[in-house]
Specification:
single chain, 694 residues, Alpha-D-Glucose-1,6-Bisphosphate, Chain A, domain 4, 4 domains, six-stranded antiparallel sheet, five-stranded mixed sheet, 24 strands, 24% strand
Length: 694
């Protein structure tokens, strides 16, 4: 089916033509390698094409089919402007490890624009647009040709077997794999969301490990009790993502229920789920969200005027949250508290929701991973469309969408007034499509009729203000007294206080602009400890020593972010005129740290003086060593600057008088990545030789 897109494909308009450059076939026909030169008509502005002096762009594509291993590898790189722009792409079709009836498709790519007549940014946007459209088209194209084959009567292809001569030579020492009869392409494969279908149904020989061993599968009772119905593919995705987290964040793994939420939010695309999950875990750690229920007490203004609260559960056993938005003075709350306090309160509500889901799972004996929200809009008017209030609402939605995916099971919006469509127009673009499908909106008293509230909530617990008999303890809201309003300066200081209650600091690392931290050591044999997370990009971590103090730090203008930004600052200490080996020396081997890794370590100082911890940009591809292909790396690099990394770090010096040669005190330097972890262990592998534990 894949070969049918050559020499040209009508489904890809920009693919004009292709010529075969070279072709190789092995004698046993197991290996088939073909290299083509492809002609593309890129959708770019005519002015840019004129300046570049080209109408078409040429790529070289090499396809390697291995019938013995049942793989197809596709490599492509640009021939046009290869001295200015470097594009590499790799695709791979393989047999799914857990089900031989399925085909896995993996894709990764990289883009490096060195120079392009001053139009680097434009070329970057064009490349992103073209690549995104190609990814969306990929599944459609392969299914088009599969259907074409089926219409021609080709519904199966026999498994490759060695030629007769090869069989006779090897029969004395080897037992050949039994070949199962070929079957038709199953229609159900398409419904499972797979990009392509494996055409054969085969059985493994006894000598090979088969899918379904205890290590590869979860206990059926456990799935039914805590996770719900999972297809084999979904179960496989959960296991693979959990394994990746175990290798990257040892001892700090979220519970399966939480991992599953992120997988569902990205339709079980492992790479996309892994990316947002790592970002969320880092965010939780930075803002100490795990401890919000225990350490943060909502201001009295919120307790009195925020018209929302938990109220029993719905018919499915989901915790029920009631919000009387129409009775709430959003402008007054923002003026009295500021955005950050409101956001933190909403986060505490979500954390309480996670806790209630766990409790209800135990009570009802079935998995409950989301809650129902009932929003009463009676009283909603134009004052609720106050611009700063809407801005605060949009930011809250953005944070909740990113860090609490698939936690909203159903949203019931009651008594929507005429002004509601205006608010909905402003808010809906920021809400995920999957979440939007869970919204049920009732105007006036429609919620009292068929298909209304009684379909989702038992009559006994319908709140009294909606005509029910159950007393609801949710505050009634009302106008916040203007005497409680605070000035913009007071709110700004309060916001800073809210989000800096953390021992961690954040920093940005740019290509050519590392972030450096100075530590002065008075007594030799002191211990420098560190704990940092690589939030974005890949970095190289170094430790240097100098006898003299560097000049006052220069703050890089690129890193000038606000206190609430995860980007952090950028400080450079090592003067450009300094020479390594003369003015300063390296005391530890450089350590390459990948995106998403959490690193802890220590160094026992030999001499007094000034030590510099440095996080430097690492230009190697982020996907070079991971065992899970990162399909969306290229999209991420196109959407944001590919020459920027982010780290979040904490350092501490243990004095020699406290150290006394014992390493046990270093166990205090570990960081709990998330309260969602089933178990958190300390980093006890820190040694004087600066062993790093991930």
């Amino acid at each position: 089916a894949y070969e049918r897109r050559f020499p040209t494909c009508p489904l890809i308009p920009m693919f004009v033509a292709s010529d075969t450059v070279s072709e190789y076939k092995s004698e046993d026909e197991a290996i088939h390698v073909i290299e083509r030169r492809c002609k593309l008509d890129i959708d770019a502005p005519r002015l840019l094409k004129k300046i570049a002096g080209v109408d078409y762009v040429y790529f070289v594509q090499k396809n390697s089919l291995n019938r013995r291993e049942r793989t197809l590898h596709i490599e492509a790189y640009n021939e046009t402007f290869s001295n200015r722009v470097i594009i590499n792409e790799h695709c791979c079709y393989t047999v799914h490890p857990d089900n031989e009836d399925w085909t896995c498709f993996e894709q990764s790519a990289s883009l490096d624009i060195k120079s392009f007549f001053g139009f680097e940014s434009t070329v970057e946007k064009i490349a992103m647009k073209q690549y995104t459209s190609n990814i969306k088209k990929g599944k459609e194209i392969i299914e088009y040709y599969l259907k074409q084959l089926e219409e021609e009567g080709i519904t199966f292809i026999p498994r490759w077997t060695p030629p007769v001569a090869c069989k006779l030579e090897s029969s004395t020492s080897h037992t050949r794999r039994p070949v199962s009869p070929a079957i038709n392409i199953p229609d159900s494969a398409t419904k499972e969301g797979l990009n392509n279908k494996e055409i054969l149904n085969t059985s493994s020989s006894p000598s090979e490990p088969t899918a379904g061993t205890p290590d590869d599968k979860l206990d059926a009772d456990y799935i039914k009790r805590y996770l719900g119905d999972l297809t084999p593919m979904q179960e496989s995705c959960l296991i693979r993502l959990r394994q990746w987290l175990q290798e990257t964040h040892k001892g700090k793994i979220p519970k399966d229920e939480h991992i599953l939420r992120f997988l569902r939010a990205r339709d079980f695309n492992i790479d996309k789920a892994r990316e947002i999950l790592c970002q969320s875990l880092t965010w939780r750690k930075q803002h100490q969200v795990d401890y919000i229920l225990d350490t943060w007490n909502p201001p009295q203004v919120l307790q009195d005027y925020y018209a929302g609260g938990w109220h029993h559960h719905d018919k499915d056993g989901r915790p029920l949250y009631v919000l009387r938005l129409g009775q709430m003075d959003t402008k007054g709350l923002v003026r009295a508290l500021g955005e950050e306090a409101l956001l933190r309160y909403v986060l505490s509500i979500n954390e309480e929701g996670l806790r209630r889901c766990e409790e209800n799972t135990k009570v009802f004996g079935r998995p409950i991973s989301s809650w129902t929200c009932l929003v009463d809009l009676e009283g909603l008017n134009m004052r609720h469309l106050w611009r700063p209030g809407v801005k605060a609402l949009l930011r809250i939605i953005e944070v909740v969408e990113a860090n609490y995916p698939e936690t909203l099971g159903r949203l019931l919006i009651l008594r929507a007034p005429r002004v509601f469509p205006v608010l909905w127009t402003l808010v809906s673009p920021f809400i995920d499509d999957n979440t939007r499908k869970k919204f049920l909106i009732y105007a006036g008293n429609d919620y009292q009729g068929p298909g209304g509230l009684l379909d989702y909530i038992d009559k006994e617990i319908i709140p009294d203000f909606l005509g029910g008999e159950c007393m609801c303890e949710v505050p009634e809201g009302g106008l916040v007294p203007k005497s409680l309003y605070r000035t913009a300066e007071e709110l700004e200081n309060e916001d800073i206080k809210l989000w800096t209650e953390t021992i961690y600091q954040s920093a940005s690392v740019f290509k050519g602009a590392p972030h450096e931290v100075l530590i002065q050591i008075v007594d030799a044999s002191s211990v420098i400890t560190w704990d940092f997370d690589v939030c974005k990009g890949d970095i190289v971590f170094n430790i240097f020593h100098s006898k003299r103090a560097p000049q006052p730090p220069k703050k890089d203008s690129l890193g000038a972010h606000s206190i609430t930004s995860p980007g952090g600052n950028n400080v450079q200490l090592i003067d450009k005129v300094w020479q390594l080996g003369r003015d300063y020396s390296m005391v530890e081997s450089p350590l390459i740290c990948k995106e998403g890794e959490s690193v802890q370590g220590s160094h026992v100082t030999r001499w007094p003086g000034f030590y510099i911890l440095q996080w430097k940009f690492h230009s190697m591809p982020a996907c070079a060593t991971t065992n899970l292909p990162r399909v969306d790396d290229v999209l991420a690099s196109l959407q944001v600057s590919s020459h920027k990394c982010k780290v979040m770090y904490y350092t501490e010096v243990i004095g020699s008088e406290d150290f006394r040669g014992s390493m046990t005190s270093l166990e205090s330097s570990h960081s709990g990545f998330s309260q969602l972890s089933a178990a958190t262990t300390s980093s006890s592998q820190s040694h004087s030789s600066s062993m790093i534990s991930r």
